[in-house]
Amino acid sequence: MYIKTLGIKHFRNYHQADLMFDDNVNVFIGENAQGKTNIIEAIYVLALAKSHRTSKDKELIQWNEEFSKIQGDVIKQSGSVKLDVVISTKGKKVKLNGLEQRRLSEYVGAVNVVMFAPEDLNLVKGSPQVRRRFIDMELGQISKIYLHHLGLYQKILIQRNHLLKDLQVKKGSLDMLDILTDQLIEVAANITKKRFIFVAQLQKWAEPVHHDISRGKERLEITYKPSSNVSEEMELSKIKEVFNETYKSKKQSEIGRGVSLFGPHRDDLGFLVNDNDVQTYGSQGQQRTTALAIKLAEIELIYAEIGEYPILLLDDVLSELDDYRQSHLLQTIQRRVQTFVTTTSIDGLNHDTLRQAAIFRVDKGIVVKDT
Hints:
The chain is an alpha/beta fold. 44% of the residues lie in helices and 24% in strands.
């Protein structure tokens, strides 16, 4: 799949821009704070209806404007798809081929993207929240039911946490807590099982990639670390049973703390290289190799799931990688994956993939393509 055209209006520092892309590699060159990353962000928002940089949609709207609009024409094996995202102070609307989608789970997945930016290096050394978000964003693109369950879980979790806080001060109903707990367990078990499967798939693709990047010297192992005593081998019914036992035994602890202490919102990922925890004991080079391997594995995982390569977004990340890792990345994507690259300069980036790319110059929210 590839994005043929992108139209943005009142988005970040862009009043309006209409762009046509190459189906291979597109490079955006410009000084910092000129709008390069905003193009990448617009593509990400078009795909996932949310930004990778902020949780506040209003920040995407150009100053003193009422709305922001992103349109894109995507070419897939099944034909072309037209996507629209409109963000206003009243909310967000998404359309597929002109038809408004009431649920984001019906929209997300129409186009698949993999983002790799400097902050993604925090995937290994950052907080558990970063890793949970990574799982949710990537798994949500290839599984509508997962996205649906995740939305339900977040709603029930908010209600349950409010009730736990009320119960701290002797308000609220214990019967209602049991009802919400049963509802939470139902979706939590489905989310957990799906995550176990996803992490196993990620391991399958990331291990050989990491082996190549490390020149055969290191072995990567990715593990899912649940906050409750469940395991990958358990059937869905068994996971529900364990969750039920956990919440029953910890009910008073949760009331005392006023918050839900267990479940997918508290889970994490672990990364081992040669049986050592990369987050704690890995060098910066090992952490970067792990992050790169995971991103390249994502590409192959999505291809295996949907039969098409996703679109790759490389936001100012090439300068963060040494020549060897940089070359490995560019060779992997060459002529297979439509790729968008932002950089302040292509000097020193000597690779055939970049020399054959479409070049766009960005200056103060104006984009001009080299001819």
